[in-house]
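HOLO CASE FILE
Compound: adenosine-5'-diphosphate
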Amino acid sequence: MSLNIAKFGGTSVANIDAMRNCAKIVIDNPSTRVVVVSAAAGVTNYLVQLANEELTSEQINDLITKVEEIEFAILAGLESPPHVMVKLNELLSLLRELAFHEEILHRPDLKDAILSLGERMSSLLFAELLCQMGQQAENFDARKVIKTDNEFGQAEPDIQVIAVQAEKLMKPELERTVLVTQGFIGSDEQDNTTTLGRGGSDYTAALLAEALDADTCEIWTDVIGVYTTDPRITDKARPLPELSFEEAAEMATFGAKVLHPATMVPAVRKNIRVFVGSSREPEKGGTWIAKNCQQEPHYRALTRRKDQVLVTVKTPSMLYASGFLQQVFEILANHHLSVDLVTTSEIAVSLTIDNPPNSVRARLNKATIEDLKQISEVTVEEGYDLVTVVGNNMHSAAGVSSRIFNAVRDFNLRLICYGANPHNISILVKDEDSTDVVKVLHRDLFEE
Ligand code: ADP
Ligand code: ASP
Ligand code: MG
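Model generated. Tokens follow.
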């Protein structure tokens, strides 16, 4: 029988009614044997505040109450069996303990422990709901399988170990029961809880699909598929029936929040088809992401990634020198910074660095800049967004880029980059311009 992994995002499990829609989707597809859930909408944001902000006891209590209200409201919609209430209260006690821990603001391991609680609570409640709706289901601790390094907040999964653990602990159960597990969380070699970065539940689903050799992986969210651009930027955005692996990977990397940036990586490795649809309106269908598509248009979609940092390193010794770029990249790699766009001139190199919450902003710090200053003059510019046009054969067809540049002729473009593959062209613009840039590009490339 074929195997499907279904992932439900935060809004899909935000309350009991939303959860019921998800439960129906699971029950309607007998191939769905593994369910991955996010924390209920809003919960992870509260946990991030508890983990990172200097708060008074009153503020801490207020945040805990907000989390409790969300979880208890879901529990109230269940027939509140005592064993679930006991487990939920255990998790809430742990939340309180961690939130008031003296070292919470300074210990990344404690931060990840607290961040994991949203998924641990929602998976407990969702498993119970499935049971009450007549579907045999069990809550499964993802940390036993999703083994990672100890880069807390942005942990890197260990694919080989995950495959072994999934085969040993999950596979044998799937005939008997649906396993409801947590997205976003894992554990390191010492069994400390880790997290995969914000939005990481999509990545968990893809990693489990890979490890369990699934046929399909469904990402159920609040939109009826992947759109031509974020429907929150323009109401002219429209859902796409199909996308290729490459296009989806580019979109995820360059900021389409609907998929965590790494989601496509495991899917591509194992050629697993990925579906994106709305848990509220499953009947409306969604986007199928597969190796090959029926059509390969030059322009498929637009993405925007906010909070980009532009670093320029300049040194006269770069003139005719070899090895300078290598030094620059080595320093950035040592600080775990991943570089996106690179442009060079005779004596300078500019590069953009993504600044996702919880990770890079913390690392593009004094230490990185000090290291770069050892070998060059450094300037750091903030306040940019990266807008990317994703499509096909963008390098080989005449006129593809001129249409793009013509559309944005009235804007100041700080940097332009042709991707190293034929699927993207990116431009860096001032953050206050980016909404308009996406709108005019959308109009010229998709609405005519
Ligand atoms: P979930 O909690 O289900 O993971 P997310 O909020 O992470 O949901 O992702 C869904 C959101 O992604 C949508 O509501 C939409 O605003 C945003 N988004 C950004 N780009 C796109 C796109 N190209 N297509 C669809 N949604 C997009
Ligand atoms: N709950 C986590 C977050 O809000 C992970 C996820 O939703 O994918 O980032
Ligand atoms: Mg998400």
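CASE NOTES: The longest strand covers residues 301-314. The pocket of adenosine-5'-diphosphate (ligand 1) is lined by residues 9-12, 38, 199, 221-223, 226-227, 229-232, 256-258, 301 (CB under 6 Å).
CLOSED: yes
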